[in-house]
Amino acid sequence: MAFDVAEIKQRGWQQGSLFNIASTREMLVAQHSGDEARLILASHDCDILHQGDHEPKIDTFVATPIQRISVLDAKARNARRLHISIAVDGTPRNHEIKFWSRTILPRECLKVHAPDEGAVLGENLPIFREWLGKRYDRAAWPDAFNTRLKRHGTDRAIRDILTPSEHCFRGIFLDIEPEAEELTNDEVPYSVRVAMVMTDANAGLADVVGEAQRCATALAKLLRSCPGIDVEIVETVTDTDFKFADLDTYRLWDFTDLSFPE
Fold first, then answer.
1. Structural domain containing residue 74
2. CA distance readout (Å), 17 to 11, 37, 63, 116
3. 163 and 105 within one domain
4. Which residues contact residue 49 at a Cβ distance below 8 angstroms, ignoring those fewer than 6 apart?
5. Cβ neighbours around 35 below 10 Å, total
6. Residue 125 in contact with residue 74, Cβ under 8 Å?
7. How far from the centroid of its chain's Cα atoms is residue 114's Cα?
8. Among candidates 163, 118, 89, 120, which has minimal Cα distance to 16?
9. At 40, which helix (H) or strand (E)?
10. For helices 143-151 and 154-162, what crossing angle results, to 10°?
């Protein structure tokens, strides 16, 4: 059966659109998280405007105003929580989105409610999309490997080393062997290779290259001091030298939210 999407399209709904506060209160009733909270539409554009009856529901999340943005929860670093700026009437407002605020609503509601024209994600939409994807598509390292990093506070030290130099890199990629095996004997090490990927443009900036190399050296020294970790190489490479084939072995390392078991 066809689903009439004309009204939804006319209203301008798309992924990242925000409900106004009044609509949010109406939709969530007692569930909403504060007087200024607002729903954000997470469903993909193709699903929002799907003309069949196979997409009866939409995914939304609750965005709640906060005083300040935490560095560790910004830029899609934390798969459980996102701190992001939303432009409200032209003024940036800090918001927090918790994954467990996810709310499924009938798609029909998009015919009744209109997106808030005064509230937009703007340039932060790609960050929201990245955060949605990371919830289900992120590396999960062996618990034994994570435990070795955590035992001597190495995980926190890694953050301290990398965070100030974050601007130097497009991504940090990790390859460990064995990749999926729990090594219970601490005397048997995990072999580690780290690729710190810079943009080709940044590779032409002497100050950025110097900072990136300093960061790589400090990271290599730290990892080598960690019992049960055998470092093969920590290197800086450009995104033109880092190939698709490298992704057969390397996986993105979200250093600000290492996947320690809770």
1. 6-134
2. 11, 14, 12, 8
3. no
4. 5, 8, 9
5. 10
6. no
7. 28
8. 120
9. strand 38-41
10. 80
Burial class (CB in 10 A: 0-12, 13-18, 19+), 67: exposed
Q: Are 42 and 132 in contact (CB under 8 A)?
A: yes
Are 122 and 12 contained in the same domain?
A: yes
60 and 113 co-located in one domain: yes
- The CATH number that applies at residue 117 is 2.30.30.110
Question: Do 16 and 34 reside in the same domain of the chain?
Answer: yes
User: Do 76 and 124 fall into the same domain?
Assistant: yes
Domain annotation covers residue 112: yes
Q: Is residue 20 part of a domain?
A: yes
3-state secondary structure of 21: helix
Domain stop point among 115, 134, 153 = 134
Strand locations in 89-225 (E):
91-98, 103-106, 119-120, 171-177, 190-198
Number of independent structural domains in the chain: 2
User: Is residue 46, in this structure, part of any structural domain at all?
Assistant: yes
Q: Specify the pairing of strand 251-252 against strand 171-177.
A: antiparallel
User: pLDDT tens track of the chain, all 262 residues?
Assistant: 567 889 999 999 999 999 999 999 888 865 555 678 999 999 999 999 998 888 999 999 999 999 999 877 888 878 899 999 999 999 999 999 999 999 999 999 999 999 999 999 999 999 999 999 988 877 788 999 989 988 878 888 988 898 888 889 888 999 999 988 999 898 999 999 999 999 999 989 999 999 999 999 999 999 999 999 999 999 999 999 999 899 889 988 875 443 333 3
Q: What CATH number is associated with residue 253?
A: 3.30.460
